[in-house]
Amino acid sequence: MHRELIQRVMGNHEAIVHFPIVLLTTSFIFGVIGILYKKRLFKEIVFWNLLFSLITLAGALYSGYEEEKYVEDPFLAESVELHRRNAWIMTTFFLGLVTWLGWRKKEMRGQEYIAWLALFFIASSSAIFQGTNGYEMSIMMKKPVKEHPFPVEKKELDYGWNF
């Protein structure tokens, strides 16, 4: 009963993952506005949005692991592996960016802030690949294995050495 409740609340990865995406996008927009207006308030907004996005990323990672248990298609399992690895890389990178901003936000100005924002843009852009990959996987998960465009069984190559 308890496990089923957790799966209902956290198991819908497709819905949960939108929270960190929106928070990351909002953070970047406020970061750009912060360059134009040069107010410390915008760095605070960016910092707190990023911090909350990390919290929601934890929920997205958990729900992704829960849904990964139900993937039976070997072709899809490779995409899930890539998706999971990229999610950990992105989360670690965002954790580094949040730590850097939290540590330096009072003194961070000019070129350092622009460099930080450029790295943040690169990390946020990787979310586009991650989202596209996730969308393709969600479509593939809804199709029966027979409808996949690629063969799902890996065949052993026969070099003629079988005795």
**Biggest sheet overview:** none
For the terminal residues, how far apart are their CA atoms?
54 Å
Mean pLDDT: 78
CATH-defined topology = Four Helix Bundle (Hemerythrin (Met), subunit A)
CATH architecture: Up-down Bundle
Strand content: under 5%
- The arrangement of helices and strands along the chain is HHHHHH
Structural class: mainly alpha
Helix fraction, binned, reads: over 70%
Can you count the helices?
A: 6
Provide the low-confidence segments as ranges. none
Summed up, the domain count is: 1
DSSP summary, beta strand count: 0
Offer a few descriptive terms.
77% helix, single chain, mainly alpha, 163 residues, Four Helix Bundle (Hemerythrin (Met), subunit A), 6 helices
Structural description of this entry:
The protein has 163 residues and is an all-alpha fold. The chain has a single domain, classed as Four Helix Bundle (Hemerythrin (Met), subunit A), CATH 1.20.120. Helix content is 77%, strand content 0%. It has helices at residues 2-10, 13-16, 18-37, 40-68, 74-104, 110-142. Helix 3 packs antiparallel against helix 4 and helix 4 (40-68) runs antiparallel to helix 5 (74-104). The longest helix is centred in the last third of the chain and has 33 residues, at 110-142. The termini are far apart. The mean pLDDT is 78.
